[in-house]
């Protein structure tokens, strides 16, 4: 859903971390997360399932992966049963 975004915090060595964000930028797009063979993959995907933008990270370097769903028009969050 447009406005949904995922925040990824990655250990880049030493005491340093780096934060990346992947956002659903247009109507009808969503953000999908996959974890395959030691790689975390976060993709912005169209309605038809085509990946528009993909970010890949080594899973042993990912410190946090936080999903931020956008609130729907009625004030609740999508999928929480309150809206």
TrEMBL record:
This is Uncharacterized protein.
């Amino acid at each position: 859903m447009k406005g949904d975004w995922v925040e990824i915090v990655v250990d880049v060595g030493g005491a340093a971390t780096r934060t990346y964000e992947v956002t659903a930028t247009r109507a009808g797009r969503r953000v999908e997360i996959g974890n395959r063979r030691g790689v975390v993959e976060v993709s912005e995907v169209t309605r038809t399932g085509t990946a528009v933008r993909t970010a890949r990270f080594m899973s042993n370097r990912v410190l946090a992966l936080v999903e931020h769903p956008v609130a729907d028009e009625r004030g609740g969050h999508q999928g929480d049963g309150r809206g």
